[in-house]
Design goal:
Elements: E1 2-8, E2 12-13, E3 22-27, E4 41-44, E5 67-70, H1 75-83, E6 87-90, H2 96-105, H3 116-126
Parallel strand pairs: 1-5, 5-6
Antiparallel strand pairs: 1-2, 1-3, 3-4
Length: about 130
């Protein structure tokens, strides 16, 4: 299983996932419960790879991800990921590693915080080609 976490400079879980540049990618294929988390791969997207702009007509650095963890996301982002075979989990948890540990332990995550950009994205998505 691969989990990608949207981050702000690889430090905190980021909102507005469609505009997120920095992602932590965890490949959990060899992970065993109670073991150490694998070191994440740091993925830095180019502007044309931001899902807010991406055309879905080429391979993407996050292809193969099973789950994307974000602080907020619009419907367009969720559709982009669903088309690529990934689910989206929205959380208010700010620490990427803690969020991942809670997911793996089956624990509840913090509720998402209000993010005005999500509302603006939903409005944009109403008139979008997505």
């Amino acid at each position: 299983m691969k989990i990608a976490i949207a981050t702000k400079h690889y430090e905190t879980v980021s909102g507005h996932a469609g505009q997120t540049r920095h992602w932590l990618l965890y490949d959990l294929g060899a992970y065993r419960p109670g073991g150490e988390l694998p070191e994440p791969l740091r993925v830095e997207l180019e502007k044309e790879q931001f899902f807010h702009h991406f055309q879905d007509d080429a391979p993407h650095p996050l292809d193969g991800v099973d789950l994307a963890v974000v602080a907020s996301a619009g419907d367009g982002f969720v559709r982009h990921l669903k088309q690529r075979g990934a689910d989206v989990l929205v959380t208010g948890e700010a620490d990427p590693e803690l969020a991942l540990k809670k997911i793996l332990a089956g624990e509840a995550l913090a509720q998402p915080r209000f993010d005005i950009t999500t509302s603006l994205c939903k409005l944009r998505d109403l008139f979008s080609r997505h």
